Amino acid sequence: MERRYRYVANGVADTIRxxxxxxxxxxxxxxxxxxxxxxxxKTRFSQALAKSLGIPGIVNSPTFTIIKEYEGGRxxxxxxxxxxxxxxxxxxxxLEEYFYGEGVTVVEWASRIEPILPTERLTIxxxxxxxxxxxxxxxxxxxxxxxxxxxxxxNGWLYEHDxx
Length: 164
Prior knowledge:
- This protein is 29% helix and 29% strand.
- The protein has 164 residues and is an alpha/beta fold.
- The protein has one domain (3-162): Rossmann fold (3-Layer(aba) Sandwich).
- α1 packs across α2.
- The longest helix is centred in the N-terminal third of the chain and has 13 residues, at 12-24.
């Protein structure tokens, strides 16, 4: 049974703190698969992660460019938004170079390309609970992601709940 963890953000500041905590445990080759309703906070989480990595400048959604690469931080950031492409188009883009590269890959709307995502990844589903409250559900796949979530749980960041 896969483990799932939850975190409730009561505002943007909580989302930023979660992104900083996740970032501190990431290594080269890490993949974060983000999903959630439109406006749930995928890009906001990605921006906070980029800032925590030390990426200079503005990070915005790659909605129309699909992939944006950012350098200058602790690790490079490969930020993807795959909402507007098909699985076949994604497969033709050679995303594996990013997934297994030297940086951190963040994929917004990741469920659209789930079959080509690496097995080892941290899937984060963001639920908009109204106002500024968000529920983050984290599902780790692979040893490094599981270790990160367990550490975050031990430090009081996450609580575990049964997968459905």
